[in-house]
C-alpha cells in the first residue's frame, strides 16, 4: 500500500461506523471533567487523555466558543463527535459505507499503542514500515504506526478484505501534476483522509472527497510566527481576540484550512492564506461545494473535517 494511512476496526459489538452513530457509549465508571462546556470522561483507573463521554457520531451544540463568538445558524454551531476506536481487530469487521457526508473515527495512541506495534509487521506494507523507522522520536513513531494500522483495519472493514490486502495510490497533485496528491483507492469507491498529532489521530471516510485534520492548540509564540499565512480577514479576527482566546481561535482556523486543502489533494502546496475559513464557531462557506465541520476532540486539541458535497440537480 503505497501512500495511504491505515485504520483500525470498530470496537465490538458495534457492527459498523453508521451503527455507532446511534449506539450510546458503554457505561463504565468514569471520572468526568468539563472543558469549554463539554464533558469528557476518562474511565476510572485508566491512564491517558480524557475520553469522549457522548454518543459517537452525534452532533451536539457548540461549546463555549459558540457562546463566546455568537450563535450560528439554527441556534449554534455543531460539532461532529467521532467514533472512538479502542480495539484493532485481527480480522476485518464488515461495516457499511458511510451514508452521511463523512464518518470520522478517533484513535488514542495511549490506548492502542501495544496492539498496533504487535500488528504492524503483519498489516503495514514495506513503505509504511520504512517510514515508521525514520521517526527519531518514539512518540512520533507510535502515533504513525497506530494511525496507519487503524487506517488499514478500517479500510479493510469497509471494503470487506484483510487489512494487509488494501491497496491505495496517489492521485496527481491538482497544483503541479506530480504523483503526490490525495491518497485514494484504485477504484475510487471510497474516499479517506488521516491526520495525527501527539497521541491522537482522526480518520475520515466518505463517498465523496474528504479531508481531516487534528492539531494541538499551540502556544502564543507559535501563533505570532504563523499569522502571516492566514487570510487577511482571519488575521484581523485573531487580532481582536483576547490573548487567552487567541490560541484556540487560531487552531480552529488552521485545522479547517488543513482539512480543506487535504481534501482537495493540494495540502500546503497552495497558499493557505488564499481561502477564508473563519475563526468563529461556524466555519465559513467555501467554493466548489466544499463544506467544513469542526470535530469534537479532547481538550488541548481541535479537529475539522471537509467534504466536497455532490452538486444538486436544478
Q: Percent range for helical residues?
A: 25-40%
| Number of E-type strands | 14
What's the main sheet like?
5 strands, mixed
Q: What is the class of the domain at 217-308 in the CATH system?
A: Alpha Beta
Strand portion, in percent? Answer: 15-25%
Return the CATH architecture of the domain at 217-308.
Alpha-Beta Complex
How many DSSP helices? Answer: 8
Content-based structural category: alpha+beta
Q: Give start-end ranges of low-pLDDT stretches.
A: 2-76
Give the N-to-C terminal Cα separation.
Answer: 40 Å
Which shape, going by the Cα principal axes?
Answer: globular
Following the backbone from N to C, one meets helices and strands in this order, namely: HEEEEHEEEHHHEEEEEHHHEE
User: Mean of residue pLDDT?
Assistant: 74
CATH-defined fold name of the domain at 217-308: Ribosomal Protein L22, Chain A
Radius of gyration over all CA atoms, rounded: 19 Å
Strand order of the largest sheet: 4-5-13-14-12
Topology at a glance:
Elements: H1 17-20, E1 30-35, E2 38-43, E3 51-52, E4 59-61, H2 64-69, E5 78-80, E6 83-85, E7 103-108, H3 109-123, H4 126-134, H5 138-159, E8 169-170, E9 183-184, E10 191-197, E11 200-206, E12 210-216, H6 220-226, H7 232-240, H8 246-263, E13 290-295, E14 301-308
Parallel strand pairs: 5-13, 6-7
Antiparallel strand pairs: 1-2, 2-3, 4-5, 7-11, 8-9, 10-11, 12-14, 13-14
Helix pairs in contact: 3-5, 4-5
